[in-house]
Amino acid sequence: MSFDYINALLKKITSRTPIWVMRQAGRYLPEYRATRKQAGDFLSLCKNPELACEVTMQPIDRFDLDAAILFSDILTIPDAMGLGLYFSEGEGPKFSNPLNTLASIKQLKKPNVGNELSYVTDAVSVITKALNNKVPLIGFTGSPWTLATYMVEGGSSKNFAKVKGLMYENPAHMHQLLDKLADTIIDYLNGQIQSGADSVMIFDTWGGLLNKQSYEDFSLQYMTKIVDGIKREFHGKIIPVTLFTKGGAMWLEQIANSGCDGVALDWTVELNDAQQRIGAKVALQGNLDPCVLYASPEKIREEVKKILSQFQGDTGHVFNLGHGISPDVNPEHMKVLVDAVHEFSKR
User: Fold this and answer.
1) Is the separation of the CB atoms in 173 and 216 below 8 Å?
2) Best label site of 59, 162, 330, 347, fewest CB within 10 Å?
3) For this structure, is 232 an active site residue?
4) Would you kindly state where each structural domain of the chain is located, as residue ranges?
5) Is 179 a catalytic residue?
6) Fold held by 4-345
7) Catalytic pick among 4, 66, 73, 217
8) pTM, full prediction
9) Could you confirm whether 168 is annotated as catalytic?
Protein backbone atom coordinates (compact mmCIF):
# COMPACT_ATOMS: atom_id res chain seq x y z
CA MET A 1 0.00 0.00 0.00
CA SER A 2 1.12 3.55 -0.72
CA PHE A 3 1.19 5.08 2.77
CA ASP A 4 1.91 8.68 1.74
CA TYR A 5 -1.69 9.76 2.35
CA ILE A 6 -1.86 8.23 5.84
CA ASN A 7 1.68 9.36 6.69
CA ALA A 8 0.94 12.94 5.64
CA LEU A 9 -2.09 13.05 7.95
CA LEU A 10 0.02 11.66 10.78
CA LYS A 11 2.84 14.10 9.89
CA LYS A 12 5.27 11.29 9.14
CA ILE A 13 7.76 11.41 6.27
CA THR A 14 6.32 10.98 2.75
CA SER A 15 8.00 10.33 -0.59
CA ARG A 16 5.89 13.08 -2.20
CA THR A 17 2.80 15.17 -1.46
CA PRO A 18 -0.18 12.80 -1.71
CA ILE A 19 -3.28 13.80 -3.65
CA TRP A 20 -6.90 12.71 -3.84
CA VAL A 21 -9.86 14.82 -4.95
CA MET A 22 -13.29 15.35 -3.41
CA ARG A 23 -15.93 13.72 -5.66
CA GLN A 24 -13.14 12.02 -7.62
CA ALA A 25 -15.65 9.30 -8.54
CA GLY A 26 -18.27 11.37 -10.29
CA ARG A 27 -20.02 12.75 -13.34
CA TYR A 28 -16.91 14.18 -15.01
CA LEU A 29 -15.89 10.58 -15.82
CA PRO A 30 -17.66 8.95 -18.79
CA GLU A 31 -17.26 5.51 -17.18
CA TYR A 32 -19.08 6.79 -14.07
CA ARG A 33 -21.99 8.08 -16.18
CA ALA A 34 -22.24 4.67 -17.86
CA THR A 35 -22.33 2.81 -14.52
CA ARG A 36 -24.89 5.23 -13.08
CA LYS A 37 -27.09 4.67 -16.13
CA GLN A 38 -26.76 0.92 -15.58
CA ALA A 39 -27.82 1.36 -11.92
CA GLY A 40 -30.93 3.33 -12.95
CA ASP A 41 -30.49 6.28 -10.59
CA PHE A 42 -28.07 7.76 -8.06
CA LEU A 43 -29.57 6.14 -4.93
CA SER A 44 -29.67 2.70 -6.55
CA LEU A 45 -25.99 3.14 -7.38
CA CYS A 46 -25.19 4.04 -3.74
CA LYS A 47 -27.16 1.06 -2.43
CA ASN A 48 -25.49 -1.55 -4.69
CA PRO A 49 -22.13 -2.49 -3.06
CA GLU A 50 -20.69 -3.97 -6.27
CA LEU A 51 -21.55 -0.93 -8.40
CA ALA A 52 -20.43 1.43 -5.61
CA CYS A 53 -17.12 -0.43 -5.67
CA GLU A 54 -16.93 -0.14 -9.46
CA VAL A 55 -17.29 3.66 -9.43
CA THR A 56 -14.93 4.02 -6.43
CA MET A 57 -12.26 2.19 -8.42
CA GLN A 58 -12.74 4.12 -11.69
CA PRO A 59 -10.58 7.15 -10.77
CA ILE A 60 -8.04 4.87 -9.07
CA ASP A 61 -7.67 2.87 -12.30
CA ARG A 62 -7.44 6.03 -14.41
CA PHE A 63 -5.22 8.35 -12.32
CA ASP A 64 -2.19 7.98 -10.02
CA LEU A 65 -4.17 8.94 -6.91
CA ASP A 66 -2.91 8.32 -3.37
CA ALA A 67 -6.29 7.41 -1.81
CA ALA A 68 -9.71 6.12 -2.76
CA ILE A 69 -12.87 7.48 -1.16
CA LEU A 70 -15.97 5.39 -0.58
CA PHE A 71 -18.68 6.13 -3.12
CA SER A 72 -21.78 7.02 -1.12
CA ASP A 73 -23.75 10.10 -0.08
CA ILE A 74 -23.83 12.17 3.10
CA LEU A 75 -27.64 11.77 3.31
CA THR A 76 -27.68 7.99 3.82
CA ILE A 77 -28.19 8.52 7.58
CA PRO A 78 -31.33 10.73 7.32
CA ASP A 79 -32.67 8.23 4.77
CA ALA A 80 -32.11 5.40 7.27
CA MET A 81 -34.00 7.49 9.85
CA GLY A 82 -37.13 7.28 7.67
CA LEU A 83 -37.10 10.72 6.03
CA GLY A 84 -37.55 9.30 2.52
CA LEU A 85 -34.60 10.57 0.50
CA TYR A 86 -35.09 11.08 -3.23
CA PHE A 87 -33.34 13.04 -5.96
CA SER A 88 -35.14 15.33 -8.41
CA GLU A 89 -33.32 15.85 -11.70
CA GLY A 90 -31.59 19.23 -11.61
CA GLU A 91 -32.87 20.03 -8.11
CA GLY A 92 -30.65 17.99 -5.80
CA PRO A 93 -31.71 15.88 -2.79
CA LYS A 94 -35.15 16.09 -1.21
CA PHE A 95 -36.97 14.38 1.66
CA SER A 96 -40.59 13.28 1.49
CA ASN A 97 -40.80 13.31 5.33
CA PRO A 98 -38.80 16.35 6.51
CA LEU A 99 -38.58 17.33 10.18
CA ASN A 100 -41.13 20.14 9.99
CA THR A 101 -42.55 19.90 13.53
CA LEU A 102 -41.00 19.74 16.98
CA ALA A 103 -42.83 16.45 17.53
CA SER A 104 -41.15 14.90 14.46
CA ILE A 105 -37.73 15.76 15.92
CA LYS A 106 -38.65 14.29 19.30
CA GLN A 107 -39.98 11.08 17.74
CA LEU A 108 -36.99 10.59 15.41
CA LYS A 109 -35.47 7.15 15.96
CA LYS A 110 -31.75 6.44 15.95
CA PRO A 111 -31.29 3.79 13.23
CA ASN A 112 -29.52 0.48 13.68
CA VAL A 113 -26.51 1.17 11.46
CA GLY A 114 -25.70 -2.54 11.12
CA ASN A 115 -29.12 -3.15 9.58
CA GLU A 116 -30.37 -0.01 7.82
CA LEU A 117 -26.94 1.04 6.52
CA SER A 118 -25.37 -2.36 5.92
CA TYR A 119 -25.16 -1.58 2.18
CA VAL A 120 -22.55 1.09 3.04
CA THR A 121 -20.39 -1.16 5.21
CA ASP A 122 -20.79 -3.96 2.63
CA ALA A 123 -19.51 -1.54 -0.03
CA VAL A 124 -16.50 -0.70 2.16
CA SER A 125 -15.68 -4.43 2.44
CA VAL A 126 -16.00 -4.98 -1.32
CA ILE A 127 -13.89 -1.89 -2.12
CA THR A 128 -11.19 -2.85 0.40
CA LYS A 129 -10.86 -6.22 -1.30
CA ALA A 130 -10.76 -4.65 -4.79
CA LEU A 131 -8.10 -2.12 -3.73
CA ASN A 132 -5.90 -4.98 -2.49
CA ASN A 133 -3.69 -2.57 -0.50
CA LYS A 134 -2.93 -0.42 -3.56
CA VAL A 135 -4.01 2.79 -1.79
CA PRO A 136 -5.86 3.56 1.47
CA LEU A 137 -9.66 3.89 1.55
CA ILE A 138 -11.33 6.97 3.03
CA GLY A 139 -14.71 6.53 4.72
CA PHE A 140 -16.87 9.58 5.36
CA THR A 141 -20.01 11.18 6.73
CA GLY A 142 -21.75 14.53 6.74
CA SER A 143 -21.51 16.50 9.99
CA PRO A 144 -24.55 16.54 12.30
CA TRP A 145 -25.21 20.22 11.52
CA THR A 146 -25.01 19.67 7.76
CA LEU A 147 -27.33 16.64 7.90
CA ALA A 148 -29.75 18.61 10.10
CA THR A 149 -29.95 21.44 7.54
CA TYR A 150 -31.25 19.02 4.89
CA MET A 151 -33.53 17.20 7.32
CA VAL A 152 -35.25 20.35 8.58
CA GLU A 153 -35.32 22.22 5.25
CA GLY A 154 -36.52 19.12 3.37
CA GLY A 155 -33.66 19.44 0.89
CA SER A 156 -31.15 22.06 -0.19
CA SER A 157 -31.96 25.68 0.60
CA LYS A 158 -31.12 29.25 -0.41
CA ASN A 159 -31.41 30.95 2.97
CA PHE A 160 -31.69 28.07 5.50
CA ALA A 161 -34.44 29.97 7.32
CA LYS A 162 -36.18 26.89 8.75
CA VAL A 163 -33.11 25.28 10.31
CA LYS A 164 -31.63 28.54 11.61
CA GLY A 165 -35.05 29.58 12.90
CA LEU A 166 -35.26 26.29 14.80
CA MET A 167 -31.76 26.83 16.18
CA TYR A 168 -32.63 30.25 17.58
CA GLU A 169 -36.23 29.61 18.67
CA ASN A 170 -35.91 26.03 19.99
CA PRO A 171 -32.23 25.35 20.72
CA ALA A 172 -33.09 22.40 23.00
CA HIS A 173 -34.80 20.58 20.11
CA MET A 174 -31.89 21.41 17.81
CA HIS A 175 -29.43 19.97 20.31
CA GLN A 176 -31.60 16.87 20.69
CA LEU A 177 -31.48 16.32 16.91
CA LEU A 178 -27.73 16.98 16.65
CA ASP A 179 -26.96 14.68 19.58
CA LYS A 180 -28.94 11.84 18.00
CA LEU A 181 -27.14 12.40 14.70
CA ALA A 182 -23.72 12.47 16.38
CA ASP A 183 -24.41 9.14 18.16
CA THR A 184 -25.55 7.59 14.87
CA ILE A 185 -22.49 8.92 13.01
CA ILE A 186 -20.15 7.42 15.61
CA ASP A 187 -21.70 3.97 14.95
CA TYR A 188 -21.65 4.63 11.20
CA LEU A 189 -17.97 5.57 11.01
CA ASN A 190 -16.95 2.78 13.36
CA GLY A 191 -18.81 0.38 11.06
CA GLN A 192 -16.86 1.72 8.09
CA ILE A 193 -13.58 1.36 10.00
CA GLN A 194 -14.40 -2.22 11.03
CA SER A 195 -15.20 -3.00 7.38
CA GLY A 196 -11.83 -1.72 6.15
CA ALA A 197 -11.74 2.11 5.94
CA ASP A 198 -8.19 3.33 6.63
CA SER A 199 -9.15 6.95 7.38
CA VAL A 200 -12.40 8.89 7.82
CA MET A 201 -13.54 12.39 6.96
CA ILE A 202 -16.41 14.55 8.25
CA PHE A 203 -17.91 16.97 5.71
CA ASP A 204 -19.40 20.05 7.37
CA THR A 205 -20.67 21.60 4.15
CA TRP A 206 -22.92 24.19 5.79
CA GLY A 207 -20.96 25.08 8.94
CA GLY A 208 -19.87 28.31 7.26
CA LEU A 209 -23.46 29.59 7.49
CA LEU A 210 -23.09 30.17 11.22
CA ASN A 211 -21.60 32.88 13.40
CA LYS A 212 -18.73 31.99 15.75
CA GLN A 213 -20.80 31.10 18.81
CA SER A 214 -23.42 29.17 16.84
CA TYR A 215 -20.68 27.30 14.97
CA GLU A 216 -19.06 26.22 18.22
CA ASP A 217 -22.39 25.28 19.85
CA PHE A 218 -24.24 23.63 16.97
CA SER A 219 -21.53 22.29 14.68
CA LEU A 220 -18.05 21.93 16.14
CA GLN A 221 -19.25 20.60 19.50
CA TYR A 222 -20.83 17.61 17.78
CA MET A 223 -17.94 16.96 15.41
CA THR A 224 -15.66 16.93 18.48
CA LYS A 225 -17.99 14.38 20.09
CA ILE A 226 -17.67 12.19 16.98
CA VAL A 227 -13.86 12.50 16.93
CA ASP A 228 -13.85 11.36 20.58
CA GLY A 229 -16.21 8.45 19.88
CA ILE A 230 -14.73 6.77 16.82
CA LYS A 231 -12.08 4.05 16.79
CA ARG A 232 -8.76 5.81 16.26
CA GLU A 233 -6.88 2.52 16.17
CA PHE A 234 -8.07 -0.72 14.60
CA HIS A 235 -6.17 -3.97 14.04
CA GLY A 236 -2.91 -2.24 14.90
CA LYS A 237 -3.30 0.68 12.47
CA ILE A 238 -4.02 4.29 13.36
CA ILE A 239 -7.16 5.71 11.71
CA PRO A 240 -6.65 9.43 10.96
CA VAL A 241 -9.68 11.75 11.03
CA THR A 242 -10.05 14.85 8.84
CA LEU A 243 -12.62 17.63 9.38
CA PHE A 244 -13.80 19.94 6.59
CA THR A 245 -15.94 22.99 7.28
CA LYS A 246 -16.58 24.79 4.01
CA GLY A 247 -16.31 28.52 4.76
CA GLY A 248 -14.61 27.73 8.08
CA ALA A 249 -11.39 29.75 7.66
CA MET A 250 -12.31 31.97 10.62
CA TRP A 251 -12.34 29.03 13.04
CA LEU A 252 -9.27 27.00 12.07
CA GLU A 253 -7.82 27.14 15.59
CA GLN A 254 -11.05 25.84 17.14
CA ILE A 255 -11.31 23.05 14.52
CA ALA A 256 -7.69 22.01 15.14
CA ASN A 257 -8.48 21.74 18.86
CA SER A 258 -11.18 19.11 18.17
CA GLY A 259 -8.66 16.25 18.36
CA CYS A 260 -8.71 15.59 14.61
CA ASP A 261 -5.56 14.69 12.66
CA GLY A 262 -6.24 16.80 9.58
CA VAL A 263 -8.10 20.00 8.73
CA ALA A 264 -9.31 20.40 5.15
CA LEU A 265 -9.35 23.91 3.69
CA ASP A 266 -11.46 25.52 1.01
CA TRP A 267 -9.79 27.89 -1.47
CA THR A 268 -10.59 31.06 0.50
CA VAL A 269 -7.71 30.58 2.94
CA GLU A 270 -4.04 30.62 1.94
CA LEU A 271 -2.21 27.41 2.76
CA ASN A 272 0.76 29.18 4.33
CA ASP A 273 -1.56 31.25 6.57
CA ALA A 274 -3.30 28.08 7.73
CA GLN A 275 0.04 26.40 8.34
CA GLN A 276 1.21 29.29 10.51
CA ARG A 277 -2.04 29.20 12.49
CA ILE A 278 -2.54 25.46 13.05
CA GLY A 279 0.12 23.51 11.12
CA ALA A 280 2.05 22.59 14.27
CA LYS A 281 -1.02 20.79 15.60
CA VAL A 282 -2.63 19.10 12.57
CA ALA A 283 -2.03 18.15 8.94
CA LEU A 284 -3.65 20.28 6.26
CA GLN A 285 -5.66 19.19 3.23
CA GLY A 286 -6.34 21.35 0.18
CA ASN A 287 -6.85 23.72 -1.32
CA LEU A 288 -6.92 24.36 -5.09
CA ASP A 289 -9.97 26.22 -6.42
CA PRO A 290 -11.93 23.56 -8.41
CA CYS A 291 -12.39 26.10 -11.24
CA VAL A 292 -8.65 25.97 -11.97
CA LEU A 293 -9.42 22.68 -13.73
CA TYR A 294 -11.24 24.65 -16.45
CA ALA A 295 -7.94 26.36 -17.32
CA SER A 296 -5.21 25.14 -19.68
CA PRO A 297 -2.82 22.36 -18.61
CA GLU A 298 -0.04 24.96 -18.34
CA LYS A 299 -2.12 27.08 -15.97
CA ILE A 300 -3.10 24.04 -13.87
CA ARG A 301 0.59 23.15 -13.44
CA GLU A 302 1.38 26.76 -12.51
CA GLU A 303 -1.35 26.83 -9.83
CA VAL A 304 -0.18 23.46 -8.43
CA LYS A 305 3.35 24.86 -8.07
CA LYS A 306 1.96 27.92 -6.31
CA ILE A 307 0.11 25.88 -3.67
CA LEU A 308 2.98 23.45 -3.13
CA SER A 309 5.39 26.36 -2.66
CA GLN A 310 3.17 27.82 0.07
CA PHE A 311 3.61 24.78 2.30
CA GLN A 312 6.81 24.61 4.34
CA GLY A 313 8.21 21.21 5.30
CA ASP A 314 8.28 17.65 3.97
CA THR A 315 5.04 16.32 5.40
CA GLY A 316 1.65 17.28 6.84
CA HIS A 317 0.04 18.30 3.53
CA VAL A 318 -2.52 16.34 1.50
CA PHE A 319 -3.19 18.04 -1.83
CA ASN A 320 -6.87 18.36 -2.77
CA LEU A 321 -9.38 20.75 -4.26
CA GLY A 322 -11.08 23.25 -1.95
CA HIS A 323 -14.40 21.54 -2.75
CA GLY A 324 -15.69 18.77 -5.05
CA ILE A 325 -14.59 18.47 -8.67
CA SER A 326 -17.11 20.00 -11.11
CA PRO A 327 -19.15 17.59 -13.27
CA ASP A 328 -18.11 19.13 -16.61
CA VAL A 329 -14.33 19.13 -16.05
CA ASN A 330 -12.22 17.43 -18.74
CA PRO A 331 -10.79 14.20 -17.20
CA GLU A 332 -7.50 14.93 -18.96
CA HIS A 333 -7.18 18.05 -16.81
CA MET A 334 -7.58 15.91 -13.70
CA LYS A 335 -4.66 13.79 -14.91
CA VAL A 336 -2.56 16.93 -15.42
CA LEU A 337 -3.36 17.96 -11.84
CA VAL A 338 -2.48 14.62 -10.25
CA ASP A 339 0.74 14.18 -12.24
CA ALA A 340 1.84 17.78 -11.57
CA VAL A 341 1.42 17.37 -7.79
CA HIS A 342 3.62 14.29 -7.84
CA GLU A 343 6.19 15.76 -10.22
CA PHE A 344 6.69 18.99 -8.29
CA SER A 345 6.59 17.49 -4.78
CA LYS A 346 8.88 14.49 -5.11
CA ARG A 347 11.34 14.55 -2.21
Assistant:
1) no
2) 347
3) no
4) 4-345
5) no
6) TIM Barrel (3.20.20)
7) 73
8) 0.97
9) no
